[in-house]
Amino acid sequence: MYAEILYEIDGSVAVITMNRPETLNALTDLTQAEIRHALDQSERNAGVIGTVLTGAGRGFCSGVDMNALGKMSEAGRRLGSTHEHLAANPGNPDKDPNFTASPTYFLALRKPLIAAINGACAGLGFSYATFADLRFVDRNARLTTSFAQRGLIAEHGTSWMLPRLIGPANALDLFWTSKKFNGEEAFRIGYANRLCKPGQCVSDAVEYLREIALRCAPASIMMMKKQVFRHLNRELGPAMQESIEWMDESLKHSDFKEGVQSFVERRDPKFSRIEVAD
């Protein structure tokens, strides 16, 4: 179905693998369109609890393909090709304008997205990882922002997201120096949520999502993600009020009754799945 990615369903977990290993999975317009389309497939598959994004071979993603960068350098502007057969709008049921661009649309997906960073991660690839919900990083992975070394600014929304993950000073350090840092450093500064043994970040991420699928309500996971990222843009008072309204709604949901009943009966819960209409 896809030319530059692999899309597989592993039980309750979808795995997207950027599949241009000869370029360390550098992103073309087609790769990006295929990722967006595949994420839409995950959103519409009620059996999928979440998605893992990773790269084939030695790299997670080395950034934008150098051929595309060369053309943009000559033109002095951003270029892009549309792929109408892959048109998709995953997530963002509220049509929040904050979550329409790439990769900021990751934040509005209804289901978790974990970046399994197995190797080189730079530029737009770093931005993709930054906007994932969690980052499982191989101990030997090498990461860099790389923007300053190309004469660019902090692109793709990373100037907004990265300081929220690791603090302004650490973010500026990574932006200014474009230094390469490994998985252990990523974990130390709070960028990596899990530090993984070599070759295990994908399997660790898949297992994490499987555990969620066994014990947690998909609707609860969806709403918690919505609360976290939507409320980053709000003051405490309005955020609290909205959470109270959503809490009242959750008390009426069948998942709440099932959650209580399964606890009393000491069994695994059977929560409802998320259904997405066309």
Structure description:
The chain has 278 residues and is an alpha/beta fold. 42% of the residues lie in helices and 15% in strands. The protein has ten helices and ten strands. It has helices at 29-44, 66-75, 123-131, 158-166, 168-177, 183-188, 201-215, 218-231, 236-251, 254-264; strands at 5-10, 13-18, 50-55, 59-61, 113-117, 120-122, 134-138, 142-144, 181-182, 194-196. The strands form two sheets. The protein has a six-stranded mixed beta sheet, with helices on both faces. β1 (5-10) and β2 form a beta hairpin. α4 (158-166) packs across α5 and α8 (218-231) runs antiparallel to α9 (236-251). The protein is globular, with a radius of gyration of 19 Å. It starts with a strand and ends in a 14-residue tail after the last helix. The relative contact order is 0.12. Mean pLDDT is 91; it is low at 69-79.
